[in-house]
Amino acid sequence: MSRDRDFTSVGKALAAPARSVFLNLLMDGARRPAGELARSAGVSASTASEHLAVLVDAGLVTCEARGRCRYYSLAAPQVAAALEALGVHAEPMPVSGYRRSRQMQRLAAARFCYDHIAGRLGVALTDAWTRRGWLADRESLTLTDAGADGLRGVSVDVDGAIRARRATTRACPDWTERRTHLAGSLGAAVGRRFLEAGWVVRHSSGRGLNVTGSGHDLLREAWGIDLTDPSDLTDLTGRAR
Q1: What is the pTM of this model?
Q2: Above 70 in pLDDT, residue 21?
Q3: What is the pLDDT of residues 73-93, one digit of tens each?
Q4: Nearest-CA neighbor of 86 among 3, 166, 14, 5?
Q5: 138 by DSSP, 3-state: which?
Q6: Nearest residue to 58 (alpha-carbon basis) of 42, 72, 70, 44
Q7: Are 188 and 224 in contact (CB under 8 A)?
Q8: DSSP letter at 208?
Q9: Least confident residue range of 9-18, 102-111, 196-205, 218-227
Q10: DSSP 8-state class, residue 233
Q11: Are 138 and 148 a contacting pair, CB within 8 Å?
């Protein structure tokens, strides 16, 4: 067998606007019912089913039956990483209406890329930890001893991340910031800790994350990160300013 890869099947699977909507929604690692995906893409249930079958056949998405409902999720973290990397080269989807515009701003501010934090928040954390010497450099993002101690100090499961089978750290291209953020098992452990501690909460719809008041306090006091943007109408908590 040749080492070369035939990308045409994956390209065909991606070549439909509705499927782009589905994959964008599933990028946070969540399982979503077919009906929710259909409504988000503005297509009928039968059309959504056809599109989802293509994504499943291509190995990009998996399907789990729960009673009469079918739930879909990305097939693996590697799929999310590949899509995030492709997003750097992809054109932004058209945005119409205030609500859709705010959703896209929220995604750019903070979101999950499968199981790790992305957007301005993910990049800001990666920058801060690199400056402190917690991550060895901006290319490899190798965890240092100081970084292990510092992240243990905020109760991140560093030791579990190191024992995991996947790479402990990985630089993942961020499609909105055009820079990299921390991924790998450590990135996933950081994401879990931020959710468990209530420093971020999932937005009620879509992939976006809201940074809570306690989260903003932690970011400023622990790492000197201030994510508020005076050009925005709201901060990352969703509160009007």
Answers
A1: 0.65
A2: yes
A3: 999 888 888 887 787 777 666
A4: 14
A5: coil
A6: 72
A7: no
A8: B
A9: 102-111
A10: S
A11: no
